[in-house]
Each structure stands twice: as C-alpha cells, then as structure tokens.
Known about the structure:
Strand 9, helix 9 (259-267) and strand 10 (272-275) form a beta-alpha-beta unit. Mean pLDDT is 88; it is low at 24-32. The protein has 329 residues and is an alpha/beta fold. It is built from 11 helices and 12 strands. It folds into 2 domains: 37-141 and 277-304, Rossmann fold (3-Layer(aba) Sandwich); 143-275, Rossmann fold. The longest helix is centred in the first third of the chain and has 28 residues, at 4-31.
Amino acid sequence: MAHKKPVFLAVLLVIVIGFLVVYSVEMLRITKQRKFEIAVVLKSNNIRSDYWQMVSTGVKAAAKEFDVNIDITGPLSESDTAGQIRNVDEALEKKPDAIILAATDYDRLTPAAQKIKESGTRLILIDSPIHTHVEASLIATDNTEAGRKAGMILAGRRNGKLYKVMTLSSGTGSIAEKERKDGFKEAVADSPGIEYAGNYEFNGTEDAAYDLVKNLLSMYPDIQGIAGLNESATLGAARAVKEKQWIDKVKIVGFDSSIYQIKLLEEGIIQATVVQKPFNMGYLSVETAVQALNGIKVNPKVNIDAIVITKENMYTQENQELLFPLVEK
C-alpha cells in the first residue's frame, strides 16, 4: 500500500499545476489591457473634402501610434446637422470608450453631447465648441485670431483710400465662423479708412455663395474686399468676381486650402487664404482621448495656430506641405 502515496502526490501535483495554468491564463486575460475603442464623428466624411480627409489622416496616424481602434463617420455635407446627430446616436450604440466630435452646430449638438457625457463616454471636441462645456477637451484653431489675420490682409490693400469690406458665412450656426467674423471686425475697427459693410449669410453651398455675391456686387458696387469665412464662401465669391471681371477691383481673402482655392491663389483671383492644420487637429484629438482614458489630466482647450498663405509665400517647403498634404483616400 506504500505505493499509493507517490501516486496520490503525483495526481495532486498535476491538479495544482493545471489550476495554476488556468489561473495564470485567466489573470493574463483580465490584466491584459484591451484596445480602446474611439468613435470619430466629423462634420463631413465626404472624400471630396480635403480638410476633413486630412483630419482623418491625422486621426489614423495617431490611432496607429497609440494602438487604438477607431471608427470614423460623418454626414456628406457640413450642413446636415440632423445626419450628424444620427451618426452620434449610432456611435453611442456601439459603446465606445471615447467619442471625438466636430460639431456642425453650436446649439443643436448640445443634447447629443450631453447624452455622450451621461453614458460615461469621454468626449473630445475638435474644430468647433458647443453650447455646454461637457467635453474633456476642445482642440480647435484659434478662429478669432485667424479672422483677425484675414482682416489685416484686406486692410493692407487699402492704399490710403476708403475701403469697403464684407464677410460671407454659411447659415449653419457655426461658432467657428462667428469667431472668425468677430476677429475680422476687430482688425477692421483698428484700421482707419476701412468700412465694414456687414456679414451676409448663405445656405452653405458654393452655388448659394456665388448667387449671393453676384447680387451683392450689383447692389453695392463700391464693395472692394470680401472675406469668405469658409471654403464654400471663398469659392462662390471668387466665381462671382471672376465672372463680373472685377478681379482688380474686389480683393478676396478665404479660409482653408482645397485644390480649387490653391489654383485661384496662383491665378491672383484670391489674395490670401487662412490655412488651418487639420492633420495636427486629428492627431491631437486621438492623443488627448487616450490620455483622458488613462486617467491623465488633459488641457481643457488646445488652440492651434492658422497660417496665412499668399501667392508670394505659397512655394516655401513648409507651406507646400500644408497645401499639398498626403491625404489617405
């Protein structure tokens, strides 16, 4: 019967080893940090929008570096606020760890943002703020300063004579455009001899901006400067001025850097464009989300500087990289 003890010990050892193996595997499964899931809801996910595609490129680069999963959505048009709200609802259903949102409307996205906060999901805003401050961080261009830069460009075209200028903005309730307008007005107010003729709104499309400017030039032939506060405004205004053959009379300053705007800049139809840094914005949004999810205190507001591009400085290496980024399609 003495041989039973070694057998018993051997069986016991096997059981203990098996238990330790199972326990170790389970602990490894529990302690192994899973990838964070981050939903990104842009103002537009249209592949024809160079700006938002560049934001996406920055997001993807950061997602790869920080090893997180991302899901990028957004309506086809920046004016489709209802569509973006649906995108947010759909993103929340997937229970992501964080949502990065570029809100199309200052007021109408507030309930959606509140819903994100109540769900326990971390919210990072990019490009534009919303009415309530429920986000962990806002990463955006300093739009007031960008508008001031646009105003200073047009003010510099005065040549000592009375100079009438106006701004064009979409009617989408964009706080970014409001801040640009405010900055523009500040620059104009500080420039003697400049008269601000007001801000005129259109429904958000290039064609609508073109129709508006065409009518305004007929009604107010003494207008000499136009600041398009977004890409559609800039392109529509340029089309109307070119068609009327008033390129030498009406100076245009715009925002953003689509291939069409770059061509207009080269042709001298627009005098300058204020270019943001969308890649940086996209990259920083993911980096900030990861920091917040790891319990690191993040900066509640990150301002990104904008650059004024003119025909004279557009060929520097730094500005060429900004104007012709490598965008993933």
